[in-house]
Amino acid sequence: MEMLMFDIDKLKSQPIYLQLYDKIKESIIEGALREGEKLPSKRQLSQYLSVSQTTIENAYSQLIDEGFVISKPKSGYFVSDIESLPFIARNTKNTVEVTEESKPTPHYPFRFQLGAIDKAHFPLETLRKFSKEAFEEPQFHLVETGHKQGDFALRKEISQYLFHSRGVQATPAQVIVASSTDQILSIITDLLPPKSHYLLEDPLYPQVHQLLKRKHINYSFLKVHDEGVQIAQHKGDKDVVYITPSHQFPTGVTMKLKQRIALLKWAQATPFRYIIEDDYDSEFRYEGKPIPALQSLDQSGSVIYVSTFSKSIAPSIRIAYAVLPIALQQQYQKTKNIEGGTVPRHTQYMVSQFMATHHFERHLNRMRKIYRQKRDILIATLNRHPELIKISGEKTGMHFVITITNGWTEAQCIQSFHHHRIEIKPLSAYRYQFKTTTPQFVLGFGGIPLDEVESHAKQLISSLQPTDRIKSD
C-alpha cells in the first residue's frame, strides 16, 4: 500500500501516538482505509514520519484494542470489519467544532444571575418529607395517568393561593398545569384564534418571541414606558397582548392603575381580544401594598393569568400554571390532542402538600425577608456612587436595572465587567424594536449568598471606576 499521508504536529501538546491513532481511526471510519487493507509496518511508518517505532506501536495497539485494526502474526496489521463494531460515529466531518462563540461561558465568581434562587434556604427537608410520602406510602394512583389539566389537589391549592395572595378569581377547573411557561404559552396559542396578532412588550423575555416565531404567529412590539405599555393607539380584531404588569421583565416597571384600566377597556371593546398576564415573580414585593393581579380587575373574561413556581420554590420544580377564562377552559376541554399531563404526578403531590400544610406560605414569608435584605444591601452600596450607577425597577422581584452614568459605552462596560470577573446581562439583549445606546444591565440578586452581596456590589463599583476604564476596540 501507499504510505499513510498524515500530518503530525510535534509541537502540539497532544502525544504523537494519539495524533496518529486519531488520523488512522478517522480514515477507517470515513472509508479512506478499507476492510482488509494492510497498514505500513512499524519500521516503515516510523522512518516515514520520523518518529520512534514505540510511538507507532502504541498507536497500533490502541487501534487493535478498539477493534479498528487486527494483527496477523508474520503478516502485519490490517483494517478490520468495522461493520461488526457496536457503534461507529461515522459523521466525523460533520462534528460540531467548539468555536469561541460556542465555548461555555467562563465561570465568574461575581454573578448577578437572573432566575437564580437562594439555595441556602431551599426547603429541602420539608420537600424531602413529602417526596418520601409520594413514593413510600401506598399511593398507587400516582403511577397512573393523571388529569390533563393537572391533579385536582394541586389545582385546588393554586386557586386558593392565587385568590388570597393576588386577588385572582379562579376555580380549580380553570387552572391548567404544565412543565414550563413555554408550554403554557404554547397551549394558550393553540386555544386562541389562529390568525391573532400578538402585541409584545419591548424589552421582553426572549422565549416568548421565539415561541411565536416558531409557531409562525404574527406579532409586533409595544414600547415599555415608565408607567407600562400604552395600548390606546392599537386597533383591530383578534388581538392578544402579552404583558408582565406587576414587575415588567426586564425593566422592573410596575404598570399603573390608569394603564391597567385602559388595557382592560381595550380588551373588552372587541370580541376575541385577550390579555396574557405573566405574573412570574409578584410574590416578592418590598415597598408599598401588594398590587392585585390584573385578572382580579377583569369583568369580561379577557385576562389569561400565567405564573410559575420557578422563583417561589425552584426552577427545577418545573411547574407552571395558567388560569383560563371560562370560555377558554371549556374550549380546552373540547380540543383534541392538546398538550397536557406533562408534570410528573409525584412532583404535583409534593407541591400540593407543601402548599396545603402552609409550608409554602411560610417559605415565601422567609424568602421575602431574605431577598429584601439582599436588595437593600445592594441598593445601599450602589447608591453611594450616583456618578456611576442609577437604579430602577427595584420595588418588586429578584432583579432590578442599573443604568451606567460614568459616560462609558455598553461595550466598554462589558469589557470591564469581564476583566473584573463579573457576570451580568445587558438590557439590550432583551430589546428588539426600541433600541437605545444608554448602557443598562439587569442585575439579578436572588442566587447571591447573603454574606457575599456586599462584596458583589463593591466589585461592580470597582469595575466602573474611571481609573479602571478599558477602552473598547
Shape: globular
N- to C-terminal distance: 54 Å
Strand tally, please? 16
Proportion of strand residues: 5-15%
Structure report:
With 473 residues, the chain is an alpha/beta fold. The protein contains 13 helices and 16 strands. α11 (359-382) packs parallel to α13 (453-463). The longest helix has 24 residues, at 359-382. The two termini are 54 Å apart.
Keyword list:
473 residues; alpha/beta; Arc Repressor Mutant, subunit A; Aspartate Aminotransferase, domain 1; Aspartate Aminotransferase, domain 2; 3 domains; eight-stranded mixed beta sheet; 34% helix; globular; disordered C terminus; transferase; PyrdxlP-dep_Trfase_major; transcription
Task: Tell me briefly what this model is.
By secondary structure, this protein is of the alpha/beta class. Helices cover 34% and strands 14% of the residues. A hairpin with a 6-residue loop joins strand 12 and strand 13.
Write the layout of secondary structure elements.
Elements: H1 16-30, H2 42-49, H3 53-65, E1 69-72, E2 76-79, E3 110-111, H4 124-136, H5 152-166, E4 175-178, H6 181-191, E5 197-202, H7 206-214, E6 219-225, E7 228-229, E8 239-243, H8 257-269, E9 274-278, E10 303-308, E11 320-323, H9 326-334, H10 345-356, H11 359-382, E12 389-392, E13 399-404, H12 410-419, E14 422-423, E15 425-426, E16 440-444, H13 453-463
Keywords: Aminotransferase, DNA-binding, Pyridoxal phosphate, Transcription, Transcription regulation, Transferase
Protein name: PLP-dependent aminotransferase family protein
GO molecular function, one term: transaminase activity
